[in-house]
Amino acid sequence: MIPLDEAQAHVRGRCPAPVATTVALDGALGLVLAEAVVAPEAVPPFANSAMDGFAVRAADTAGAPVRLAVVGTLAAGAAPGRVVGPGEAIRIMTGAPMPPGADAVVMVERTSVSGSLEGEQVEVEVEVPVDNHVRHAGEDLESGQVVFPAGTALGPGQVGVLASINLGEVPVYRRPRVGVVSTGDELVADGGVLAPGQIRDSNRPGLLALLAESGFDGVDLGLVRDDESAIESALRAGVGTCDALLTTGGVSMGDFDYVKVVLDRIGDMRWMQVAIRPAKPLAFGTVDGVPVFGLPGNPVSSMVSFELFVRPSLRAMAGHATTERPLVRAVVDGGMPRRTDGKVHFARVVVEYRDGAYRVSTSGGQGSHQLTAMADADGLAVLPDGDGVAEGDEVEVLLLR
How far is CA 227 from CA 185, 241, 292, 352, 372, in A? Predict the structure, then answer.
């Protein structure tokens, strides 16, 4: 068996570097900037009101309450039509440009309006300073300013900022396109009745869901029967259209499986036994330069292997600086016994945060075939080789959500 960190380093070292591309802004969410973005214009582009109210000369509010003549109305999107002179005010809406002569805004709640033969007047109840409720040009971004550096992961906020500077095309790293193929005569995926010895194909839907949740484009390459020619065709088609490929099953030492036969012939593969439980068997290599992950057949092992090897590698291929799930210390409720076997165990756990600390307990049965416990898990508790951890002990936990 080989240590986990050695296996991870081997996989990471053979995955390709991120590929830069350009996408429309509406397709940039979740991607990583391939180069810095510089603001071509100021945001906001002009001084404007932060409130509904009246644009005034701050000096005219000294000694408030005071009465000022209302000489116009300025809505958002309209251009100022006149200068605000001494003793005057312009009714202004949020976002409307500040009219010349005005240097402050009095919010509407601190005013009252009355009319007379001489015209409308506003009584200002409070004295306000210069720049009161005024948003200045470039207050958010100045022209020429670096908005986001290369390597920034784009969330909703970043997308909104890029829209505010009129960036319709965004320089990003390509989102990896990942093919998933299942093989085996024992698998059923058509909803039919199970014959003796058959099982439902859960790995492929589960892996495709993990890819989607992680922000990658999963490609369903289907279920292929145990036929060497059909398997080779499916694998070659996958590497021809995808950035990475996932297969499940047939990776244990001593297995005679058509997937192993084909991959050994067409690829440069390493078949590993990693010192972990679950997910000890792992195959990894390349076919025509495309990374191929051979994951274990047991459903829990397949998902744990995805978390430890596939997801971090794909995030690196997508340009993310942070590739691993968050790792936290947590207090154990109920204890987590295990036996010494030379492996690091990853226990499926429910995670809570209460009284200022993370706390974990097992999510159910820990067999590699017990997928329900994996579905209920919020994290993977890292149990070093030994007798396990007792009630109240601390353990490291890889947070899954």
Answer: 9, 21, 19, 47, 31
